[in-house]
Amino acid sequence: MGKTKKYDYTRLLIKTALNDGLTQKEIADMCRVSQPIVSHWVNGVNKGTIVQLQPLINKYGHKIKRQTMTVYLQQELKEKTISRFYFSVTGEIIFKYTFFINNCSIYKFIIHRQQNQFILIVQKNIIFLYEEDRIAIQNIEKKQFRLNKYKNFEIFDRNEKLNWNSKYLNFSSASALLKEIDSQDFYEKELIPLYKYLNKANSNRLIIALQFLIRESFIMHNIDIDDVIEIK
Question: pTM higher than 0.85, yes or no?
Answer without folding.
Answer: no
